[in-house]
Design a protein that fits this description.
- The protein has helices spanning about 5-25, 30-55, 65-75, 80-90, 100-105, 110-130.
- It has about 140 residues and is mainly alpha-helical.
């Protein structure tokens, strides 16, 4: 696969994850809203990583680390606000998907927090899509 094909692969899954976050918000599943936001941004970042570094994505879920590596290999700069969102989202990545873990963490997320994260994710996602053009 070419770098652009890898980008498109990651983006197609990221699009689905963002749609899932929207659906989870509509059904009141606050934990899954933020989890799917995390997944969407992680996959967009991984696509951009492939595109701008022309290298395989490291096996990590640390969005900030991947963003930092993109900065090292391109003219892209992520501001503090973006890094703060990446850090927030990374807290909601689930390495273990056991019901007790999910329900306990899910109890900590309010509708307002889920809404704020979803809004910031939408804004960041739209911005991340513009970064594709910087590679052409």
């Amino acid at each position: 696969m070419t770098a652009i094909e890898k980008y498109e692969y990651w983006k197609s899954y990221a699009d689905r994850d963002l749609d899932a976050a929207e659906a989870m918000f509509e059904t009141g599943r606050w934990f899954y809203v933020v989890f799917m936001c995390q997944q969407a941004i992680e996959k967009m970042i991984k696509g951009l990583y492939n595109l701008h570094t022309n290298d395989d994505v490291p096996r990590t879920h640390n969005i900030g680390l991947l963003a930092n590596r993109i900065e090292d290999c391109s003219a892209i700069l992520f501001n503090t606000e973006k890094y703060e969102l990446f850090e927030t989202l990374s807290k909601y990545y689930i390495a273990d998907r056991y019901p007790d873990f999910i329900s306990k963490k899910g109890d900590l997320i309010s509708k307002e927090e889920a809404k704020t994260i979803l809004i910031k994710t939408r804004e960041t996602y739209a911005w991340l899509q513009t970064l594709k053009a910087l590679n052409n």
